[in-house]
Write a structure and sequence with these properties.
17 strands; four-stranded parallel beta sheet; Rossmann fold; 13 helices; about 40% helix; ABC transporter substrate-binding protein; alpha/beta; about 425 residues; elongated
Length: about 425
């Protein structure tokens, strides 16, 4: 069956393969949406220079999801299928329930690759696997951030790099499910690692006045502060106000601190801050070649961490489609299922690390939380800002670390 189907697929025309990209090109997530677009453009150009997908060039079609909810996101996805004849949907992340685009892909019987980084994806595909067979999250869920943060702290202690002044963790989260899920994972597992949650604070967005929260932190000093509220501007204001009277606390900030805007706003106050990502450009040979080429093309302020996500996803799809004997069009279920089968079995070493899918959750394995083999999972990388003029440096996990952890200057040795 597969052999015959592949022979038929290989005989396709040389018409372009339309890759639909429903991205947040305007609104609150536009900075990342622009990078997601750039990553797709770079990958498409490279793949086309090598002959495309079995001789068919990739043609990109973009739909603006406007950083809005399900109705806008769904409309953008459907336009890409109905008007542009998209054979696949590829995105970075989108806000909303994270079920809108999986439903669009299911209705059209095409693959959908995304990095929403939400456990809701895993729940969705496990609840209706025969409906959402085409939706694949090419990074781990946000639950890995909470577990990974606690593992990171324990490893810092056990290796002698950090002795916390006390066992208290102050957790600050925001209004969106992604931030809350990470915060709850830290809160619910902290005691298992010997930590006490001294503060669990939920803030609204945007927030510029951090006085009330900082007063609580200063009244009961924690050894660690974990901010899972991810908006860069809000984090920057927290850091500036924190440094007016800092506590003896190690600061971790979710995602926002990884962007150049955080360092531009905070300046020297950013130095020492920790951040992490379950999918980001590595600082090894493969990652650096990609990052240098990306910045050469799009400018020094471009973000390989974001652009590398869709770049890697398009390569993964192109390889899976080639192995399946060709691209499927909308509603060509058999060929698109064949592509998904190849995607499920793929082990792809991207600039972000190794993408390998868990067939049960249709999401990528995380290293080291879900596998102890760095060649079989995406590394959950922790970085520390050491120079406000430079990107953070990867300090964990091994073997991807490039520099040791340093105690922030506001902390007492």
């Amino acid at each position: 069956m597969l052999a015959g189907m592949n022979s038929q697929a290989a005989a396709q025309s040389s018409d372009p393969v339309v890759v639909g990209a429903p991205l947040p090109l305007t609104g609150a997530a536009a900075a990342d949406g622009i990078e997601f677009r750039r990553g797709l453009e770079m990958a498409a150009d490279e793949i086309n220079a090598m002959g495309g997908i079995l001789g068919r060039p990739i043609q990109l079609a973009f739909g603006d999801t406007e950083s809005q909810g399900d109705d806008v996101i769904s409309s953008a996805g459907r336009r890409l299928v109905d008007r542009e004849n998209a054979a696949v949907l590829i995105s970075g992340y989108n806000f909303g329930s994270n079920s809108a685009l999986p439903q669009v892909a299911a209705d059209a019987m095409i693959p959908y690759l995304h990095a929403d980084t939400v456990i809701a994806h895993e729940a969705l595909v496990q609840s209706e696997p025969e409906t959402f067979w085409g939706s694949w999250m090419y990074d781990p869920s946000e639950a890995m951030y909470g577990i990974g943060y606690l593992d990171f702290l324990r490893n810092l202690e056990e290796s002698g790099q950090f002795t916390p002044p006390n066992r208290k963790i102050a957790i600050i989260t925001g209004p969106i499910a992604y931030s809350i899920n990470i915060a709850e994972a830290i809160r619910d597992r902290a005691a298992d690692y010997g930590y006490e949650v001294s503060l669990y604070e939920t803030v609204q967005a945007p927030i510029s006045e951090w006085g009330p929260t900082l007063a609580k932190i200063r009244a009961d000093e924690p050894g660690m502060i974990a901010m899972t509220h991810l908006f860069t501007q809000d984090q920057a204001q927290f850091m500036l106000q924190f440094m007016e009277n800092p506590t003896n606390s190690l600061i971790y900030m979710q995602y926002g601190a990884s962007l150049a805007a955080f360092r531009e706003i905070t300046g020297d106050a950013s130095e020492g801050v920790l951040y992490a990502t379950v999918i980001g450009a590595l600082q090894d040979e493969i990652g650096m070649i990609f990052a240098e080429g990306y910045k050469e093309r799009f400018g020094e302020t471009a973000s390989p961490n974001a652009g590398g996500q869709t770049y890697s996803a398009l390569y993964a799809y192109a390889m899976a489609a080639s192995l399946a004997g060709g691209v499927g069009e909308p509603y060509e279920e058999m060929q698109n299922r064949a592509i998904v089968e190849r995607l499920q079995g793929l082990i792809f070493r991207s600039p972000m690390g190794t993408i390998r899918f868990n067939p049960q959750t249709q999401s990528a394995y995380s290293y080291p939380s879900q596998t102890d083999d760095p060649s079989l999972g995406l590394p959950h990388i922790f970085s520390q800002i050491k120079d406000s003029a430079q990107d953070g440096v990867i300090i964990a996990p091994s073997p991807y670390d490039k520099a040791p952890f340093e105690l922030p200057r506001w902390m007492k040795a």
